[in-house]
Amino acid sequence: MKSNVVKIALAVALSLVLLWFFGRSVDWREVPAQIADVNVPLFLLVIPLAALHFVTRAARWHVLVAGEKINVRFRNLVSATVIGFTVTSVFPGRLGEIVRPLYLARKEGLRKGFTIGTVVVERIFDMFTNCLLLGLFLLARPLFAGSWPVGVEAGKHLKLWGTIGVALGAGILALTLLLYFFREQVSRVVGFLLKPLPEKARQTGLRVFGEFVKGLTFFRTGGQLGLYAVLSLVVWLAIVLFYWVFFLAYRVHLPYFMVIPYVFLTAVGASIPTPGMVGGFHYFSKLGMVLLFHLEAGRAAGLTVVAHAVQIAVTCVLGYAILAREGLTLLQLKRMGESEKR
Fold this sequence. Notes:
- The chain is mostly helical and 342 residues long.
- It has one domain.
- The chain has helices at residues 2-23, 31-36, 40-65, 74-90, 96-108, 112-139, 152-181, 183-193, 199-214, 222-249, 259-270, 280-293, 297-326, 330-341.
- The protein starts with a helix and ends with a helix.
- The model has no long low-confidence stretch (mean pLDDT 82).
């Protein structure tokens, strides 16, 4: 209990620090007018686009879980995805990443370790897809140099975060491949580390580890890997589409491809484990709008607040509707995720 309080306090403190950086250069008296200046029909289109990634993520997830069960219901994949994002929107620590596979495992009779392994794979591909899109964007710069609004400082930021993302993604991928291809050796090491535990707990730990590794078996099939990579591109290009239409609604006219580096920066901010992405998303979103699109700080702050609010509102409305249908509460899901973390 005490450790949970400390974690929550640290997450809230981090959110507040990032929010301070987000809001320190903003004249908040101008923000309401910036928010109100919107093309309403286009803004209404933004709302369903905010939910599109739940569908594309569910389709991508099915490629992985099909290795365990081919006839997983798509409705449950979507529901699990929405519920996971809802939990992450409310509680700190990315708890939804644990709740999502556990919910699907319970609904479809899958092994918990296996489904948790598939989420690890998703995160690796999310990171690599973002880095790939940013890399392609930077490589293609000579083709659209005339419409390139990014200054020297922004270019340095992009290169810095791109390098960090590639290095981190490569490290995680290498560790995952090591875990899979040398699973017997790693299993022996894990068994040695679990030796001090009671026999029952040790056997349980080894079983969960084995199921977790089995969640990575998609690496065996080149065709499945290729399909999954393509669907990962679909997931993130749909997210780019959401922001592109959002900016059009606020009369920020950009080529579609110019939104890619902005999405990369917001993904970095969203990966910070604060409640509901508060702080991390805000700071990096504003940074991207100012450096990449040359928006004024007040306008960038206002658009960031609206973009975040739309995503959280759509996620929570859908999540609460699914929970009501299932007769579940967020606290039950929170306890489910915390028990697995232990």
